[in-house]
Design brief:
Blueprint lengths: L2 H18 L6 H6 L12 E4 L1 H6 L7 E5 L10 H9 L3 E5 L2 H11 L12 E4 L6 H10 L2 E4 L7 H15 L6 E5 L6 H13 L8 E5 L3 E6 L2 E6 L2 H5 L4 E4 L5 E6 L8 E3 L6 E4 L6 E6 L3 E6 L5
Parallel strand pairs: 1-9, 2-3, 2-6, 3-4, 4-5, 6-7
Antiparallel strand pairs: 7-8, 8-15, 9-14, 10-13, 10-15, 11-12, 11-14
């Protein structure tokens, strides 16, 4: 490795240290960093604190919750789910996800009068029983039928959520999408594809897919700083960088197996089953979007 490249990597590590100490570097300094791949046109560091946001959800209600038609596997921490739902600024159930939510409340003995109704039910309604639809509709939920079969109910629901927020003048910063594995690989891939498409719907809203033991979202091209709770670091919980869609070159700090201007690509290297080196912040610099997924099993 040349001396020039070593100096540049050292500069990025210095930037990561500043992020970890909550002192961001001067943006001009970030823009001057230039690696062997074309990464020199980034304007800012994108800070991600989804775990912190989940823990202190009651202090920040500027988020929406969307429930898709997948199992709701939060049986051990029911209050977490109830709080996440009730504290949201907007609540959306999507097609059969409405029945999933209805059944989850009944099975777990939740009192319906203590649970806020969905603000919106969307979808083509092909997997939602009439008695469940009628129950919520009579309770005041707005029902929006989206029959277009060229797109998934998930992406259509996000469009309707955006329209609803704009119409009602509701500002949101985050959307938590409750979506667990359901045995359908094609649907899992469709859900990931939706993460790539959300940039055409929301300008500055972060979308997180939350399952019973994991949190997944799309890191954009550029510098990303992810806050890692101490219990996840101590327990060496897993994390992954997955280059779905196209190859990307990545430089990281804070991981047990860091990437040093490494090309991630299916058929060569994919960084799954990674973990943390103990740092409070993981930094990811990438020349293309990349999926980040992390365990939250010991957090909720």
């Amino acid at each position: 490795m040349s001396c020039i490249k070593i100096k540049k990597i050292s500069k990025f590590i210095s930037i990561a240290a500043n992020v970890a100490s909550n002192t961001l570097p001067n943006i001009t300094d970030v823009q001057k960093t230039n690696f062997s791949v074309d990464m020199n046109n980034f304007e800012k560091i994108e800070n991600w604190t989804p775990c912190d946001d989940l823990i202190v959800q009651c202090k920040n209600s500027n988020y929406a919750v969307v429930i898709l038609n997948t199992p709701i596997n939060f049986s051990t921490n029911q209050q977490f789910v109830v709080n996440l739902w009730n504290q949201a600024k907007v609540r959306v159930t999507v097609n059969g996800g409405t029945q999933r939510w209805f059944q989850w409340l009944k099975i777990n003995g939740q009192e319906f009068q203590e649970i806020l109704i969905p603000d919106i039910i969307t979808g083509d309604m092909d997997s939602l029983p009439n008695h469940v639809l009628n129950y919520f509709q009579k309770s005041g939920t707005k029902v929006i039928v989206t029959p277009d079969q060229d797109e998934t109910d998930y992406i259509k629901a996000l469009r309707e959520l955006n329209i609803y927020c704009n119409t009602e003048n509701l500002g949101i910063d985050i959307v938590y999408v409750m979506v667990d594995t359901c045995g359908r690989f094609d649907q899992m891939m469709a859900n990931i594809n939706t993460l790539f498409k959300t940039k055409y719907i929301f300008q500055s809203v972060k979308i997180f897919q939350i399952a019973s033991s994991s949190l997944t979202w799309l890191l954009p091209k550029g510098y990303n700083a992810i806050s890692i709770p101490i219990n996840l670091r101590k327990n060496q919980e897993w994390c992954s960088l997955i280059p779905i869609g196209a190859p990307c070159n990545v430089i990281s700090t804070g991981l047990k197996w860091n990437l040093n201007n490494t090309k991630l690509e299916f058929g060569t290297l994919v960084s799954t089953s990674n973990t943390y080196d103990g740092s409070a912040v993981v930094t990811i610099q990438t020349d293309g979007p990349v999926i980040w997924s992390m365990s939250i099993a010991t957090m909720i």
